[in-house]
């Protein structure tokens, strides 16, 4: 995005290009996503005691604002439902009704439009919070293939859902504004949009070549360790544990027992219950190199 200050009466301006990871949209007093974007790029007038210092031109009346120079393939919109309230000196959650859409066009918020690549976006995910500023529950609705078929991810439960459940039911607002089965404290706080021209790239099938080798190795090791643990659990009843106490534990011990039972220095061995005594002795000899 580009932040700018333009003087009204002289030919002088200041601009600064900035990158963004997400766009924080104000929802308080805004009906929908379009009103929030218009508020985001709204111009602020610098005049009176707040005139802009234009260097050699002195203090000047000016306009201050931001405009977008480009939008990314994947766009994250942060709906500012949680904000600081100076009156109560704490964070509060705004449950106001705020409408967003499955399809949006952001060309009008760009500094220069590209007719060959319009900034048209399709909604991919809706992150939802139920509760207040002190806590609550989080779920996410995802449109995996960008075809309008939605899934609900609620902890470890994944289920199919309707488009209405994913979008309209998460506008927020009071009960009388919505279906009575939906609590007014349940609403969207983060939206993920994918540019239409990039849908085929972003949502393409993941192949083995896309997975980093170190991640594949880590997953393979985790599976191997899980198999070892499963085998140990299944065979645990076949084994017994032997604690071996060496003479080092006796040396210098003063007390009623031969060693300090509070801090025993055991060597722990596992052996099959059906093993012979000779096999146990061979195991000890190998371990103690004797």
TrEMBL record:
| UniProt cross-references to SUPFAM superfamilies, sorted A to Z | Cysteine proteinases
Query: Under what name is this protein listed?
Result: USP domain-containing protein
Task: Give the family per the record.
Answer: Belongs to the peptidase C19 family.
GO molecular-function terms, A-Z: cysteine-type deubiquitinase activity
Q: Where is the USP domain?
A: 1-196
GO annotations under biological process?
A: protein deubiquitination; regulation of protein stability
Q: What GO terms fall under cellular component here?
A: cytosol; nucleus
Originating organism:
Tenebrio molitor (Yellow mealworm beetle)
